[in-house]
Amino acid sequence: MASQNEPVRRLPNMQDVGPSELAARDAATTILRDVFGLRGYDRAETPILEQTELYIRKSGGALSSRLYDFSEPGGFDVSLRPEFTSAILRHAADNGSTQGSVRLMYDGPVFRYADPADEDGDKTRQFTQLGAELIGPPAPSADGEVIATAIEGLEALGLNNARVVVGHVGVVMAALTEFGISERAKLFLVTSIDDLKNGNIDAVTEKASALGFITDVVIDDAQAAADRERIASTIEQVMSEGIGVSLGQNTGSRTPEEIVARLARKLSQADNPADFKRALDMLSKLSQVSGPAAEAAETGSKVLVDSGISADLISNLTEVLASAEMEGVDTSRVNVDFGLARGLAYYTGMLFDIYAGGTDEETLGGGGRYDGLTRALGYDRNVPALGFAYNLDAVVDALAATSESSDEVTLVSPSESGSVNAAIEQARKLRSSGTRAAVEFQNSNEGQGA
Amino acid sequence: MSNLRFALPSTGALYDGTSKLLTDCGLSVRRANSRRYTADIPSLPGVDVLFQRQSDITIEIDGGSADIGVVGLDRYLESRLERGDTVLLHDGLGFGEAKLVIAVPDSWLDVTSMADLAEIALEFRAKGRDLRIASKYQRLLKRFLNTNGVNYVSMIHVSGGLEAAPIMGYADIIADITATGTTLRENGLRILVDGTVIESQSVIVGNGRALANDPEKLANARQILEKIEASLRAKKYQRVTGDIQGESEDEVARQVMSRRELGGLDGPTISSVHTGQDSNWYTAQVLVRKSDLSAVVSHFRDLGGIGIAANDVQYVYRDRCESYDRLVENLKPFAESGDLR
After folding, report:
1. Which of A86, A188, A434, B290 shows the greatest Cβ crowding within 10 Å of its Cβ?
2. What is the C-alpha separation between B9 and A401, in angstroms, rounded?
3. Measured between alpha carbons, how far is A305 from A404 in angstroms, rounded to an integer?
């Protein structure tokens, strides 16, 4: 805390935005709104402050450690918004406009805390997002439109080397389902995908052993049946004697029946280690498939077929890629990466990251399809939806790195012009021809003529 | 230039541990009576001692009303300002060891891990209520729960008697600091296998800005760190002496060093025993780790040693004071600029 005689400083990783950066951002915003507008997107604005629950429901909690959450004076648990999608989707649902296709765009500040100890701990915690949501259509052609819009926006700004990397959570999940493993096992595997992609299959195997997915003990069917019987009789006994009575304990706010029922469920869902191991091997191979779209899709289907899975699983991905091409996307700009699988709690199909191209590998934004989100937000049915957002600050930085034109103010010095009046006159002339110009006044009285 | 304000815990296990540590270091605190909140250290006139509540010490140091202090690592991490002025001066004083753990009613047979807890939180949510967790550590806990996928929780802030919360019904589970886990067990609670939020012990923290800009305070802090470091190191060592026969000092030294690992921290000291007649007895002296004590005694016996004795030592100094060197490194950002790092 600063004492009374010290200036109050900005919070860590929060920044002021100066005139030139702001001008560049405003200019980019205008251009992007025009590009999206031409494709039929209308603007919407939602509150910066929302109930924390909105964001936890959306991300399944993945964002919760990054939320700026607190109690507001009215007693609600609230957060500064970390993203727009959930609020925009709610806006569309509340206005009953989820029958046909709804196209909405938005821009504004978002807030994400990052612990200093984390990998991205030095990132700016407030940044500007500009994005678009397409609500309603389930067809792969909608996915193609969204990818095309993301690239068009960057091209309109002059980032002519923009690229996208496309992944597909739907393909990965469907492939894992083929192995008959539990939801818990699938979730474990997909959240390990970054390690698998980097070839750390040993580390993942070790962790899987620690969690009991893989055991050295060979379980045959007879033994498994015997185990199940033993568990069932134990549970029956506990049920009939009463867990609270038999253990002489308080079960808190859960009833003994709830506890026993969940215990039974947990034990019966144990995975077959052999199935799990096959699923792990398949995902390890699939996650390492990336490259130019057509080739990577081909290699991906081969991995599936080799694992005894139908290559039809990736048909949605190939249709998405084809429709992006129809929308005018140069296919050399599109890479496929089967190891790209983040945001599992809400992405259901394709997802993508956007890059400026060139040597700078920082992502400029991303998006994807999230067909289950409206139901997760509490509405009575699922509405297909997809969208993407740019990190506008990163886009503006990428522009500054490529553009050579400067928009500096020409300062007219009275000493060079002969007098203050002459300088004023010269600056007026410059302005009338469209050049930014101002008189360079001296800050002290010394040397100030007239 | 002014006195170093040294904040110490006013009560509890950390008070006892700190008093003993400082006494062992020759830095006994003189307190006029137990109700006084200020005291001094006669052997360090440039230091003022302030007795504070443990939960306030980090905040006092962050705010600049104390310069350094003894506090539990758990309290420090819970209440310090992110990129504020506090820095860690010593990361383990060897007392006040405890873990912050998450514990559930023992009767929840189906809940053994954080993954189970994440599912339970969702089940509670589906029934329209939140899983309630009672704790004094909101900040550390929130981060730990979130990173383990436990998102739907209500934090119940309780300052004492946490263990009773699930039985009394104002919370479902608790997160509390425990040294042995006994109190939790006796209250029908069980620690989750991966439910350790943080392992803590007592540490010394200080205000980096104050220390970086006042050489006198820094010099006093250094004296305290030097004494503590040397005293803590000394607890691991003993000095062993024994009389060994040999032809010369060098020859006895060679015998002792025949097992290099038992030759002491800096090699043996050999001196002749003066018996009044011609004598070939020498006294060998080595400073060894306590864990090596019996091996050294056997080694001396094998060399025909007699009069073997072992003594505790009060201080063991090395060529540098590690915690002071680290402090100097940590103070650099404060000396260079007044901005938040």
Report:
1. A86
2. 54
3. 50
B183 and B227 part of one domain: no
**Cβ within 8 Å, pair A243-B107:** yes
Q: Do A266 and B339 touch (CB under 8 A)?
A: no
Q: What is the count of residue pairs from A and B with beta carbons less than 8 Å apart?
A: 79
Task: Give chain B's domain count.
Answer: 3
Specify whether B213 is located in the same domain as B272.
no
Chain B residues close to A115, C-beta within 8 Å? 143
**Chain A contact present for B154, CB below 8 A:** no
Q: Are residues B323 and B307 in the same domain?
A: no
Per CATH, the number for A19-168+290-402 is: 3.30.930.10
The CATH number linked to B57 is 3.40.190.10
Q: Is the domain of B157 the same as that of B184?
A: yes
Cα gap A107→A89, rounded to integer Å: 15
Quick one: chain B helix, strand, coil %, rounded to 5?
40, 30, 35
Task: Specify whether B81 is located in the same domain as B164.
Answer: no
Please, where are the H alpha helices in A95-242? 140-157, 169-177, 183-191, 193-197, 201-210, 221-241
Q: Which residues form the domain of B47?
A: 4-96+201-234+319-336
If asked whether residues B187 and B111 sit together in one domain, one would say: yes
Residue B327 resides in a domain:
yes
Chain B contacts of A263, Cβ < 8 Å?
Answer: 109-110
pLDDT tens figures, A164-212: 999 999 999 999 999 988 877 888 888 889 899 988 999 888 888 777 7
Q: Which of chain B's residues have a Cβ under 8 Å away from the Cβ of A61?
A: 146, 149-152
The closest CB to that of A259, out of B110, B146, B173, belongs to B110
From residue A420, give the alpha-carbon distance in Å to each of A98, A426, A428, A436, B113: 63, 10, 12, 18, 77
Instruction: Report the complex ipTM.
Output: 0.70
Span B64-123, pLDDT tens digits:
999 999 999 999 999 998 878 899 999 999 999 999 999 999 888 889 889 889 889 888
Of A61, A244, A249, the CB nearest to B151: A61
Give tens-digit pLDDT for B201-260. 999 999 999 999 999 999 999 999 999 999 999 999 999 999 999 988 899 999 999 888
Residue A381 touches chain B, beta carbons under 8 Å: no
A158 touching B (Cβ < 8 Å)? no
In this structure, are B22 and B43 located in the same domain? yes
State mean pLDDT over A103-118: 91
What whole-number distance in Å separates Cα of residue A171 and Cα of residue A394? Answer: 30
Predicted TM-score (pTM) of this structure: 0.76
User: Could you read off the pLDDT of B136-178 as tens digits, one per residue?
Assistant: 898 899 889 988 888 888 888 876 778 888 888 889 999 999 9
Partner residue facing B107 (CB), from A64, A116, A250: A250
